[in-house]
């Protein structure tokens, strides 16, 4: 069995910033990446498409199937976050007022946040469309 933590350790050797994994062909996800970039003046977060080779390895490091593009994932050196937890953690890294909003939203129970997240994620292509290839 592959040790995915060891296999992906090199992603954090030169650059310890967390990596946001996103569906590279999803218009909503690409918009989310652009939003984070626009609100991350300190460039705290790196980006990688879930469909890329690195994305697939980082998914496995996070305990997900390598072809699971159902959720945004935030991968830190020592931990990964999925679904609404990933969104809240990303909000903590970007500019004001998003860290404060994340603090408030953490009081919404996880099952409620993830239920809402899943409804949007399951319908993202229907609502927002998708591209032929990753534009980021």
TrEMBL record:
InterPro entries for this protein: DCC1-like, DCC_oxidoreductase
Pfam families: DCC1-like
GO MF entries: protein-disulfide reductase activity
Highest rank taxon of the organism: Eukaryota
PANTHER family, per database record: DUF393 DOMAIN-CONTAINING PROTEIN, THIOL-DISULFIDE OXIDOREDUCTASE DCC
Protein name: Thiol-disulfide oxidoreductase DCC
Annotated source species: Genlisea aurea
């Amino acid at each position: 069995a592959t040790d995915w933590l060891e296999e992906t350790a090199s992603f954090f050797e030169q650059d310890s910033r967390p990596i946001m994994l996103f569906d590279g062909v999803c218009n909503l996800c690409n918009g989310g990446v652009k939003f984070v970039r626009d609100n991350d003046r300190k460039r705290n977060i790196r980006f990688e498409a879930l469909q890329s080779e690195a994305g697939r390895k980082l998914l496995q490091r996070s305990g997900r199937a390598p072809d699971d593009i159902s959720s945004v994932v935030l991968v830190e050196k020592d931990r990964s976050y999925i679904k609404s937890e990933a969104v809240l953690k990303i909000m903590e890294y970007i500019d004001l007022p998003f860290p404060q909003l994340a603090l408030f939203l953490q009081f919404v129970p996880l099952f409620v946040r993830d239920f809402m997240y899943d409804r949007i994620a399951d319908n993202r292509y229907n609502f927002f469309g998708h591209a032929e290839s990753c534009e980021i």
